[in-house]
């Protein structure tokens, strides 16, 4: 029996991912801030990039949860169940997908820079690792 994607299961999955992301990012930030408090508080780059990634992801997730109805009504329209506002829902879905794609790339790069910043802090005392870190940064920037 194939699994069917419904509005309820889609929203439940989104909410589960929001909760999971909040727990992981929150835990990472708590440990980062506690470490910062012990060393004289100042915002580190890895925490700033992580906060950026988290905020962008939350905005994307909020749009997805809010537009779930439009998405599923629009998909139903392809099977012949069109309705008076079908074209308008299509425009809303297109806007969502455009924003979502851009937001996911911003989230991806923010997480990547957060991890690179964290690794830079961890490797600061070993010159070879620092040179390798710069090689990875150059590679990520070029790619």
From TrEMBL:
Keywords, sorted A to Z: Membrane, Transmembrane, Transmembrane helix
UniProt key word Transmembrane: yes
Residues passing through the membrane, by range: 12-33, 45-65, 96-119
Domain of life: Eukaryota
Name this protein carries in UniProt: TRAP transporter small permease subunit
């Amino acid at each position: 029996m194939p699994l069917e994607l419904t509005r309820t299961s889609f929203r439940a999955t989104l909410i589960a991912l929001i909760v999971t992301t909040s727990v992981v990012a929150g835990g990472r930030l708590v440990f980062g801030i506690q470490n910062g408090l012990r060393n004289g508080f100042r915002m580190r780059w890895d925490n700033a990039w992580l906060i950026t990634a988290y905020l962008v992801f939350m905005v994307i997730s909020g749009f997805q949860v809010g537009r779930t109805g439009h998405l599923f009504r629009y998909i139903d329209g392809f099977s012949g169940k069109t309705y008076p506002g079908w074209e308008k829902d299509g425009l809303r879905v297109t806007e969502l997908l455009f924003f979502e794609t851009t937001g996911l790339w911003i989230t991806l790069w923010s997480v990547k820079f957060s991890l690179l910043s964290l690794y830079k802090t961890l490797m600061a005392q070993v010159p070879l690792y620092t040179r390798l870190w710069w090689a990875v940064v150059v590679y990520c920037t070029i790619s």
